[in-house]
């Protein structure tokens, strides 16, 4: 596992492959609480950042798992963590993977 995730605190009852999936999230970092992951995405402009947020919001609603996030024009910072049971869970990693795929589809600023 990459050093960026050293000391992560997992939710109880997580699948055995969670560590390997987490390690593949190269652009994500461990949140200060060690119970979540965060990433900043930079898009070409506001419209593409908003589109990203809209797509992620729809997926979050369907999965019943919502992020903490911030938007400033073309930048979106997003954090995933699980509150019950507290810690990083497969839901967080799945949503981070979804965010990465969605950002790739929309296109990030070079």
UniProtKB/TrEMBL annotation:
Xref: SUPFAM superfamilies: PCD-like
Entry-linked InterPro entries: PCD_sf, Pterin_deHydtase
Pfam families reported for this sequence: Pterin_4a
Segments crossing the lipid bilayer: none
GO BP: any one term: tetrahydrobiopterin biosynthetic process
Source superkingdom: Eukaryota
Keywords associated with the record: Lyase
A GO term, aspect molecular function: 4-alpha-hydroxytetrahydrobiopterin dehydratase activity
Reaction catalysed by this enzyme: (4aS,6R)-4a-hydroxy-L-erythro-5,6,7,8-tetrahydrobiopterin = (6R)-L-erythro-6,7-dihydrobiopterin + H2O
Enzyme Commission (EC) number: 4.2.1.96
Family: Belongs to the pterin-4-alpha-carbinolamine dehydratase family.
Xref: PANTHER family: PTERIN-4-ALPHA-CARBINOLAMINE DEHYDRATASE
UniProt protein name: 4a-hydroxytetrahydrobiopterin dehydratase
Protein source organism: Didymosphaeria variabile
């Amino acid at each position: 596992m990459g050093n960026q995730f050293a000391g992560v605190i997992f939710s109880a009852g997580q699948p055995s492959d969670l560590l390997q999936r987490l390690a593949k999230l190269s652009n994500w970092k461990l949140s200060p609480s060690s119970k979540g992951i965060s990433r900043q995405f930079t898009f070409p402009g506001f419209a593409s950042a908003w589109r990203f947020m809209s797509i992620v919001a729809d997926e979050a609603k369907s999965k019943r798992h919502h992020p903490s996030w911030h938007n400033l024009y073309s930048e979106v910072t997003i954090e995933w963590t699980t509150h019950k049971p507290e810690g990083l869970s497969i839901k967080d990693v799945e949503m981070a993977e979804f965010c990465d795929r969605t950002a790739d589809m929309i296109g990030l600023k070079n």
